Amino acid sequence: MKRLPRDPGHDYTRAMAKARRELVEEASGASLEHVGQFSFDPESLPGNLEGFSGVAQVPIGFAGPLLVDGEHARGEFFVPLATTEGTLVASYNRGMRLTREAGGVRTTVIDDAMQRAPCFVFRDARAARAFGGWVDAHYDDIKAKAEETTRFGRLRDIEQYAVGKLRFLRFNYTTGDAAGQNMVTKATRHACQWIEAHKIDGLERYALAANLDTDKKHSPLNNLHTRGKRVVAELTLPAALIRSVMHTTAAALFAQRQLSNMGSLLSGSVCNGAHYANGITAMFIACGQDVANVAESSAGFSYGEILDNGDYYFSVTIPSLIVATYGGGTGLPTQRECLEALGAYGAGKVLKLAEIVAATVLCGELSLGSAIVADEWVSSHEALGRNRP
Amino acid sequence: MKRLPRDPGHDYTRAMAKARRELVEEASGASLEHVGQFSFDPESLPGNLEGFSGVAQVPIGFAGPLLVDGEHARGEFFVPLATTEGTLVASYNRGMRLTREAGGVRTTVIDDAMQRAPCFVFRDARAARAFGGWVDAHYDDIKAKAEETTRFGRLRDIEQYAVGKLRFLRFNYTTGDAAGQNMVTKATRHACQWIEAHKIDGLERYALAANLDTDKKHSPLNNLHTRGKRVVAELTLPAALIRSVMHTTAAALFAQRQLSNMGSLLSGSVCNGAHYANGITAMFIACGQDVANVAESSAGFSYGEILDNGDYYFSVTIPSLIVATYGGGTGLPTQRECLEALGAYGAGKVLKLAEIVAATVLCGELSLGSAIVADEWVSSHEALGRNRP
Amino acid sequence: MKRLPRDPGHDYTRAMAKARRELVEEASGASLEHVGQFSFDPESLPGNLEGFSGVAQVPIGFAGPLLVDGEHARGEFFVPLATTEGTLVASYNRGMRLTREAGGVRTTVIDDAMQRAPCFVFRDARAARAFGGWVDAHYDDIKAKAEETTRFGRLRDIEQYAVGKLRFLRFNYTTGDAAGQNMVTKATRHACQWIEAHKIDGLERYALAANLDTDKKHSPLNNLHTRGKRVVAELTLPAALIRSVMHTTAAALFAQRQLSNMGSLLSGSVCNGAHYANGITAMFIACGQDVANVAESSAGFSYGEILDNGDYYFSVTIPSLIVATYGGGTGLPTQRECLEALGAYGAGKVLKLAEIVAATVLCGELSLGSAIVADEWVSSHEALGRNRP
Amino acid sequence: MKRLPRDPGHDYTRAMAKARRELVEEASGASLEHVGQFSFDPESLPGNLEGFSGVAQVPIGFAGPLLVDGEHARGEFFVPLATTEGTLVASYNRGMRLTREAGGVRTTVIDDAMQRAPCFVFRDARAARAFGGWVDAHYDDIKAKAEETTRFGRLRDIEQYAVGKLRFLRFNYTTGDAAGQNMVTKATRHACQWIEAHKIDGLERYALAANLDTDKKHSPLNNLHTRGKRVVAELTLPAALIRSVMHTTAAALFAQRQLSNMGSLLSGSVCNGAHYANGITAMFIACGQDVANVAESSAGFSYGEILDNGDYYFSVTIPSLIVATYGGGTGLPTQRECLEALGAYGAGKVLKLAEIVAATVLCGELSLGSAIVADEWVSSHEALGRNRP
Fold first, then answer.
1. Is beta strand B52-69 parallel, antiparallel or unpaired with respect to B105-116?
2. B204 has catalytic annotation
3. Smallest Cβ distance to B266: which of D223, D258, D262?
4. With C342 labelled, which of B245, B300, C368, D75 sits at a CA distance of 20 to 30 A?
5. What is the ipTM of this complex?
6. Rounded CA gap, B124 and B133, in Å?
7. Under a CB-based contact definition with an 8 Å cutoff, are residues B209 and A369 in contact?
8. In this complex, do D261 and B261 lie within 8 Å of one another by their Cβ atoms?
9. Subunits with at least 3 CB pairs below 8 A relative to chain D?
10. What is the per-residue pLDDT across D130-170, written as a single tens digit (0 to 9) for each?
11. C-alpha span between B357 and A327 (Å, rounded)
12. Are C132 and C160 in contact (CB under 8 A)?
């Protein structure tokens, strides 16, 4: 089979994209007509993609307005959701109506950290332990070294984890408005090279990463210690509103929560929510986020209480929400437009975006949870989904 | 704030999409010019999205050719990857070169099941246990009932899980070429209503789902029992090839695997791989999959062995790969084109798609793993990523 | 240092025990006077211990009577608890009073299985998958072979788990009144040798165990699929009784349960209970169980509901309770006496013992849970524990 | 049924013990003759047990000498193992021979912390977050308050974990030579009362514990952050010795480790070792430890490497080893004698005991691992266990 054409000097052109599509068309017999329809100049793409050949056109619907009572996001927002799953937009929209009528969703960013976790291998556990002390003693130097490589990244602290003769260092950074994975990799490597140059006693070798980050996969460690932003969305729903909008009761929602908790405990799931992933993924695609971070960002914790007056307090906590309003795909044309529709593009906006995502997730949880309890789950999919009867 | 306009009878038109964009533009002050550029008729969208307003244009690059030695996918494929993360396409491409020169990736689909897991609440544990026996005794009836609602879904078996007075039934279906989540929800609800009508002794109520599926989140249960397809990709890499293409050795890759295993065990991660999520997400966006399933599909198991001759056996197992070549977003214009570029659109193709995804994941693991070991991880991102020095 | 004396032909004598104690005393300077005080003939010990040198005297208290409404255990029991932890007996005793006044604890054995899980390594995943089919096709032969080695063990089914080119078979047995770990190891080895003799295509080697049992450690797999007995204990507590005996309310206990569920989900714990391990360990030591199985047996699930009339339904589920009334340490003098005090020594008694253990655990959960809520936790330890003020 | 006799003023006497045994004998028809044989004065028991009625006599064998190259334990030790499981002592003894001939086991205590983790419930997440800052700002006061209640406990730090409107504080203490669970409960309660008195804004209530400790059950959190002592035992085994003593090879042991790692990852197990629980439990019973802590103490991480010369590096890490040489059951007659036989009774000895336990665990892992690989597992149990053919 032929190789895809590349033109190192001028690879980001409509002509080269066309040449690659033609080769794939020839090789596969498929047409790539729609893939070839895009509205921007490929010259903007270096740094986002190699071998640009066209686009996926993912349909967008807006849900909302979503009323957010955050510290960074305040007021009403139309939330762009890029998805191909029928019912999704309608369901989030319904949840947004409910929470709007209830006075809005309160959002709070609790924590903020992006990691790289190198693993140092020593002669034995004692040398590894001594290294732990050395790291603490040289923290300021290590921090200065790591930060030499970045304008925005700030080393916040280094957690240490010990197994046998291994010492994992978990470097926690704040990364401004970028998601920051590459930023912290580069900074941590720089710091590690500085460490290595000190001929640490007993150090045999190190790996810049070894699954303790834990990057692009989820873990109880991330649930405990935050990766990206840790955000809470919460509100108290008046009993009457649950009845009128959701056709169910606080007691029924709460009883369902009990079963869901048991299902999560029994299965060992990383998340006791219903479908955090749906809203997060649709926002991530629309808003130019690194969608693969759905692996981590989709986990979280739902918690509810019935109040004495019959109202229902409900919250979602997303411990590993990885978002950016700068860098990555945020500056691409449709992606930037969607961020701007939220007033969340560029510098100083990342916490606002985190809050809007969390508020959206909460609305989706209330909507799906209510649909299950009110037996409207299947009927809504029949009305709006692909496999209509 | 105004409400988004809807026209129940004619909502899927360019005019209505424009009207909604205009409202969002007015409300937010943002422009949605690029979002409004799409190449297809909105009339094709009912069932995929409500309130269609435009598209996200996600850039696509092709990696490959990927040489697959599967049972369903055989030969070379150009793999469409929709992403905004620099280096990703180049990295997978490098892994594909390596595996192509090694003779290709062997792929095997091991298992196939899509679930819905209702939870039945009883008077006490004895009534719940008796119900377990009743379900076994009436399995054929339940199966017939469930399958009344679907042309393609087939109930394969029902697993039972007991906690206190609760009985979770995990209905496992095959779902043809569809991902099948809605199909199995509908079928299971139908079966549950039939069960409920039998006035089971001690049955107080049931919930159609309660987090034991586990849908849109991951769990050890899914790792054990498959959700979607369970696929293995594997190959043996000649030592010389690892040296020439990846600038490292089998011993170094294997030593890194040991550290990664410890990092995964220590963090309790649901995955001991490096970044399964990256390739899966990029393929999912390009190919019209339900991208939120990255939550489950991105988990898995890497396993390596050094052979006596110094070659390196390596495999990835994806236990919960949720893919479709029919239904959902697969029929949308760019999405269908990408599936067709793989020869994987429509009936009878889903296992082929699963194999190509798994082979792609394996290539990405080898590429990133080698980059870490050869200290080329940061330099490659500097050459190709956004934050170039 | 000298070696411990052994007399292969007559090693289980008071004289040899003394000789060994004397050597240890000489080597360490310690006295082993009390260790040397035991009331039985060492000749009964072969099969239970090598190098017998004396005994640990672990104090026993009885809690109860415990009122059990089981299928195998019915009526009142004095439960022997061997422990050195002050407050433990008193706390379980208090829970037993509460449940006795509430009409007793209903117990139900839900499932019964003991495992050994060999791992077969193949040329590739396809050969491993084919082997899976072969095992299914030859199940009757494998079963017959496994059962050749045991009078009591019955192979119930074989679960299969696939990763890469590995195939784990999880042999599930019932083992009569024995715990059965050695029984199933022997039976499974016999079956594996029979399998190996069939020159399975692609089979490279196998290991008789590789941590999927999972033996002497806990896992979500055991939580899901039972190891030993799966037992539920449950009851409904009248509101007035909670007040009078426990000095708290159903609402307070239930609210505490909500927090405990979140603590368990957040920490990823294998158990959402408070201290199942305490009662189980104390009974295991008293009753000659394999106490190391506390690793698995101490996990479980607590579930509560507030009823409309204010009463509190509460249950504990122990998914991996490994107990025996025959074999192992059950026949030793004090151990047998304690089992006989429960009417649970010997053939046909193992489910009775399982029920009593579960009922005991439930009493301990209610007692400690109430103490936390009523702020009597510290004061009770001050009254009864070692570090009295 | 009659109630057990109690004599509040003189309950710890031979006469009262006899009276209780007689009542149980009468109620059950069982004899408690051996239970009634003990060699000490019951007056020593208050604080260890309520309702003393007799003892469990658990047979003890010594394994060793175990050669330890620790920082606190140095030299050879005969290790007391109280168990009723045939083969156990022999197997650990074999591992001790191997490691002795290899020059001994290097042990290192890495970390030391005992926890109590109260959960504070607030009006909303913002109030909970503000409380987090307040705790940091008042750390010195909180520490001083907590330490008012204890002579030996020292508050080391407070970790904070946030979910919704909940704030868990994980108080980490060092506790001298005691295990310290009661000590830290009392200290933490005292600190919490002080906190509560400050009328923290938005604080609704708190619970002194809610499963984030995680006490008497295991969790990834404990694996990460230590509960009790975090201890490593490690050594390098010469290839020839593996052959001569264990009848296998480093390569075979290492290959088995690979399978065991996969079994642990697949099952989600909290431990990738074989049977840490066996040695730990037997030492805990003999040495007066709180045996219920086997739930936490039995988890851990095994890690191996084949060196270039064919030798085998192997280590075990026990992250939650809860041990004491003071308080609890350590002062009881046989228990104290066993600790003294290790030179590990009383003040200043707890790290020594931790090292000996870890070294013992390592020997057991090597012995069982080798037996599986050399196919001597079943045959050794047939020679030494109860179900001899």
1. parallel
2. no
3. D223
4. C368
5. 0.98
6. 15
7. no
8. yes
9. A, B, C
10. 999 999 999 999 999 999 999 999 999 999 999 999 999 99
11. 28
12. yes
